[in-house]
Amino acid sequence: MASARAPLKLAVAGLGAIGLAVARRVDAGELPGMLLIAAAARDHDKARKATAGFRAPPPMTTLAGLAEVADVIVECLPAAHFAAVAEPAVANGRILMPLSVGALLEHWGLVARAEQTGARILVPTGALLGLDAVRAAAEGTISSVRMVTRKPPAGLAGAPLLAQRNISLAGLTAPLLVFEGSAREAIAGFPANVNVAVALSLAGIGPDRTRVEIWADPTVTHNTHSIVVTSNSSDLTMSIQNIPSLENPRTGRITALSALAALRRLTATLVVGT
After folding, report:
1. What is d(CA 16, CA 99) in angstroms, rounded to the nearest whole number?
2. Which of 49, 72, 142, 146 has its CA 20 to 30 A from that of 215?
């Protein structure tokens, strides 16, 4: 009888709202076949306090050091720190799961590099829905993809494009269209807000053909994404309303759960969905 597979060693880069939630669940043993063995954070003292109640608090290391010890690295950092995690992970042939998927567009050479090193880059669905259907439609011909995002003004605060255009969301009383363009342009202007647009574009027709609208909407309490896809196999209309994270209103609570579901697929004997 064959022996059980050795557990995958997991490291988490960033222990904010997403990273800490993922780390906590893995430490609790909720993902069979996976062990939390390391983490990295900007503030090691704060991170150690946050993980003090874990069954086995992970050692803290550098961003680059994660690739030296782990099989799988979940990246949950501000986009500016993406390369510090992603480049060593790919160079060492690891499985990289980026939550800052928008930053991948700026480091697209990592995809070709991964082919050389045997690394894998697995983009979780995040705070979106229907990427399995979009991927299936992309095996045929997709004519168009459009996403409309509506967020409470606090969920868009601090976005670079708003600052560049001198757009203030303070005291907003009606929905305001703050952006319309491609997914590539959207993530450049809102690097902490619309990683979902990039994930959608990679599943479908690419970041330059995927069209995006972003609304600051004081009438909504949830981060809402509506998607319309036209293809030669099916026409898709999908909508999701995400409850914002208490720790970070820019992020939906489902984002961490999506990362956990993606990690579970790595070791599951039964996998459902494409």
Report:
1. 12
2. 142
- Compute how many other C-beta atoms are within 10 angstroms of the C-beta atom of residue 14: 25
Class at the top of the CATH hierarchy for domain 8-125+254-267 = alpha beta
Report residue 1's pLDDT band, with 50, 70 and 90 as the boundaries: very low
Contact 12, 45 (CB under 8 A): no
Annotated catalytic residue 81 = no
**From 44, 107, 222, 225, active-site residue:** 225
- Are 212 and 149 in contact by the 8 Å Cβ rule? The answer is yes
Q: What digits encode the pLDDT tens for the residues 85-140?
A: 999 999 999 999 999 999 999 999 999 999 999 999 999 999 999 999 999 999 99
- Residue extents of the structural domains in the chain: 8-125+254-267, 131-242
Q: Tokens standing for 90?
A: 């790919």
Question: How far, rounded to the nearest angstrom, does the alpha carbon of residue 196 sit from its chain's CA centroid?
Answer: 7
Q: Round to whole Å and give the CA distance between 230 and 237.
A: 9
